[in-house]
Design goal:
Layout lengths: L5 H5 L3 H21 L2 H24 L6 H26 L25 H14 L30 H10 L1 H17 L9 H24 L4 H27 L9 H5 L3 H10 L8 H6 L6 H6 L8 H14 L9 H14 L21 H4 L3 H8 L13 H11 L7
Length: 418
């Protein structure tokens, strides 16, 4: 099963975790104390760039009956939607810029350019996902309710279809997120199943009318003779935004090394253990400034899960400090190329579509699902290595989870079959 004891799994004592937590608290305080002009300049420039791209794209599409104009307009519109979704909407609604006290750039007032109402998303994502990150049965973002992403979830015949469901989810990602958040909003409201006149449904309907009307009625009509090509350009831009957002999210949550946890672990969790769960349950992908910006700096998913309400432009500098802490406490810092991280997630999607009897590894020791039990089951030399991991008997240096994983791999301990 997933991790039930994070201290045992991480090979850290309670004192270790408290020390790690205090160092992470210090990182947060340092960023909070240093927020200022350069951060405000960053977000305002990002907003300006996004709006100029959208304006340029909309203007170019007036001539979209000509292929060069269609390509230019669609490209600019796609970029504007990606930036609005990732760097602006997602991060502003996390409250990353509330400290500026600018009513235009505030989590309470921002409405993003996609189907789901921002209020629905904030309730489901900011609270549920970031509180219960990767806790099986509590975090509905683990597979978004349609994909089996851990062996802790019972296999059902419908899972055979999840490779196809994944393609549909990727292409319609904004709708998948919107419906996912609608369910959470309706439950929070206490609406009965199938109650069409619930407040959640009314809010959802209004947002659909506005969003779909803008992209697929208003702007095509304004384009006059170019209405058909404008319609296809808007649909293409939405598709591009959906696919990119899907890839970024899956690379941060589902590669190997992004661990899952049980309700038992959460019930006795301290504030500093919450930090550790975020570190072990998230994954980064390598990025430069441009890709970082286009991903909303969610290429630093570990840092985002640790500090979801700190300005996203600070994540690269925070990452340097977090990586140093991982080295100090001998913890893995899960990262890799965008292609590698996505292919690992894609492998899990296809592999877990199959019944468990076709899978080699167990729920305690699989690439996508791991547990402290994997170390308890160690045999012979592997067991001896694991027992000495807290402190190296020769050098006296700290040895923790990262060394445990390496020692286990080097021991080549065979995995049990179910």
């Amino acid at each position: 099963m997933a991790i039930t004891d994070i201290k045992e799994f991480a090979h850290l004592t309670e004192a270790d975790i408290e020390s790690l937590g205090r160092e992470l608290d210090a990182i947060r305080l340092d960023v909070e104390d240093s927020r200022g002009v350069r951060d405000a300049r960053y977000i305002r420039r990002a907003i300006r760039a996004q709006r100029l791209l959208e304006l340029g794209g909309r203007l170019a599409l007036f001539g979209s009956r000509y292929r060069p104009a269609w390509l230019a307009g669609t490209a600019m519109l796609s970029l504007s939607k990606i930036i609005e979704n990732m760097e602006l909407g997602h991060n502003v609604m996390h409250g990353q810029w509330d400290w500026m006290n600018d009513p235009e750039i505030h989590s309470m007032s921002w409405e993003w350019d996609q189907t789901g109402p921002s209020e629905h998303w904030k309730r489901a994502h900011n609270y549920s996902h970031h509180t219960f990150t990767n806790i099986v049965g509590m975090d509905s973002d683990v597979g978004f309710g349609i994909l089996r992403m851990t062996r802790d979830e019972e296999w059902r015949p419908i899972n055979l279809l999840q490779p196809f469901a994944n393609i549909i989810l990727a292409a319609t990602f904004e709708w998948g997120i919107a419906l996912h958040d609608l369910t959470f909003a309706a439950e929070l409201e206490g609406a009965e199943k199938g109650q069409l006149n619930s407040q959640a449904n009314k809010d959802f309907g209004r947002k659909i009318f506005r969003q779909v009307g803008k992209d697929f009625l208003l702007f095509p009509v304004l384009a006059g003779p170019a209405w058909k090509s404008t319609l296809t350009a808007n649909a293409t831009a939405n598709l591009a935004r959906n696919l990119w957002a899907y890839v970024v999210i899956f690379c941060g949550h589902f590669p190997d090394g992004a661990e899952k946890f049980t309700v038992d672990e959460y019930e006795n969790e301290t504030r500093h253990e919450w930090y550790l769960r975020q570190m072990l349950g998230s994954a980064n992908f390598d990025s430069g400034k441009v890709m970082g910006f286009m991903s909303g700096n969610l290429s630093y998913q570990i840092e985002h899960h640790l500090f979801p309400d700190l300005p996203s432009n600070r994540y690269p500098e925070i990452a340097v400090k977090v990586r140093a802490l991982c080295e100090k406490y001998d913890l893995p810092y899960t990262t890799g190329s965008l292609a590698k991280q996505y292919l690992l997630a894609l492998r899990t999607i296809h592999k877990l579509a199959l019944p468990d009897r076709f899978l080699r590894a167990t729920a305690d020791d699989a690439p996508e699902t791991s547990s402290e039990r994997k170390f308890r089951d160690a045999r012979d030399a592997g067991a001896a290595m694991v027992e000495t991991l807290r402190t190296d008997p020769v050098t006296g240096q700290r040895r923790g989870l990262l060394s445990a994983l390496r020692a286990r791999a080097e021991a080549k301990i065979p995995r049990r079959r179910r």
